[in-house]
Amino acid sequence: MEYSRTGPERHRLGGDGIPGAVGGSVVSAARSAGVASVGAPLPAATAAVRLFTNYSATIGTTGKTAIRVFPGGSPSQRRYKLQEAAVKLVPHERVARCFRYLRAGESQVEVLHAACEGRAFYGKLEVCGSVWLCPVCSARVAEARRKELDEGVRACEAGGGSVLHLTLTVQHSRQDDLALLLYRFARAWDGLNTHRAFKDKKASGKRRATVGIMGRYGIMGFVRAQEVTHGQNGWHPHYHLLLFLSRPLTAPQLASLEAELRVLWASSAAKEKLSMNDHGLTLRRGAGAAAGYVAKWGLGAELAKSHVKTGRPGSVTPWDLLRASAGGDVRSGFLWREYAAAFKGKRQLFWSHNMRALLGLEEEVSDAAAAAALPRAAVHLGWITLADWFLVLRHGKRGYLLDLAGGGDWDVCREFLAGLRADRRSERLRLGLDAPPELVIPPLTQLHFLAMVSQRFA
Ligand SMILES: [Zn+2]
């Protein structure tokens, strides 16, 4: 790694050709840990390098700078990288514009900072809101949904009710077409959900004898999530449901509820030419917060630890496929495209009628709104010009820049952007091309720079 002594605190392209991959952290680490200032000789900086590669927690701070460093890239860096892989596979979908293109009428990219979370966010950019195709939006939507589910479960239990976790699936084979499988699966679910033996909540008039499962077991409603994995036997779609009950069930009641649901699910699936085995339906008591379920539902949680395989042994999630595709696996890329075409536009979470109101939850926001929402505490940190933004995109540094901005010190980001500009300029000059004009440093910054240099050599 090499540091420039000629520019204002700039990073140079490292040996791997990626500016700031580690170098940025080191410079910032030097600042934050008070190790050395800009242009520090290498031995002084290596301590910081070691510090930063060994720890993933926030490292010592001076002033505003506090940067978290994760070995192998932070979750946000990995999400943006994964999004780039998705764009390569489906370049005509909205995900290709997501957190890249400026919204109509905007001329600069805004960076906002939420001090309480120690995170930064981009503003003024288009947001696709696709929970299926976009790793960035998926994670943001999942975060919002997780909070809601958690609130819902707590409200139900606080009111004396209980929550059950129901999983539905069907047998499938390698020959199954995913879109057709999903269509049949959805119809089978509709068959169960609208069946009188399931949905009737109250006994009334002549229908006294036909009180459905919901009425007899006190099921007030449910929230349903759909998910798919891919394994040896092809696509494996499944529904997860949280059933909200008005009262707790005893163990025998739970067993009989499972048996009744199993019969109903088997008959609904059979009508759609689908079959189920012993694993076709499972019913478990809710244990702990909904966040635990949601982690299993693939609502973005697996992205937080995307360096590990997240599907069950022998099966992979769509994000695993996308990662493999990014690594050059053509088959995974083909499968991911099939998945993208089948899931595009589908709802990930569905609340049954009136359930949210019963649990005291606010009106549901759309996926796009949830993905675009910013924390209330987020305040303006700085602006990125369009020219700089193109450099950030070209080098795939959106996630990295956000991590830098997470420290709340805009100067650090400005230095990083100046480094990108300088590298671009020297690369063009090396190739005999015209370089963009030198950045004119405003007088105040010059003073600041001189002060820093004199401090450095004092
Ligand atoms: Zn998106």
Structure description:
The structure is a single chain. By secondary structure, this protein is of the alpha+beta class. It has 2 domains: 7-132 and 377-457, no CATH class; 160-309, TT1725-like (Alpha-Beta Plaits, 2-Layer Sandwich), CATH 3.30.70.1120. It has helices at 23-32, 42-54, 75-89, 135-158, 178-193, 196-199, 213-217, 251-271, 290-296, 318-326, 330-343, 355-358, 367-372, 386-394, 398-405, 410-430, 443-456; strands at 109-114, 119-123, 162-169, 219-231, 234-245, 281-285, 315-316, 349-351, 379-384. Strands 3, 4, 5, 6, 7 and 8 form a 6-stranded antiparallel β-sheet that branches. A 3-stranded antiparallel β-sheet has the order 2-1-9. Helix 5 (178-193) crosses helix 8 and helix 10 (318-326) packs across helix 11. It is elongated. Bound molecules: zinc ion. Zinc ion is lined by residues 95, 98, 127-128, 130, 134, 136-137. Zinc ion (ZN) is lined by residues 95, 98, 127-128, 130, 134, 136-137.
What would you call the shape? elongated
Strand-pairing-aware structural class: alpha+beta
Report the major sheet: 6 strands, antiparallel
Strand fraction band?
Answer: 5-15%
Alpha-carbon distance between the termini? 25 Å
Question: What key phrases describe this protein's structure?
Answer:
17 helices; alpha+beta; 44% helix; disordered N terminus; binds zinc ion; 3-stranded antiparallel beta sheet; 6-stranded antiparallel beta sheet; 458 residues; Alpha-Beta Plaits
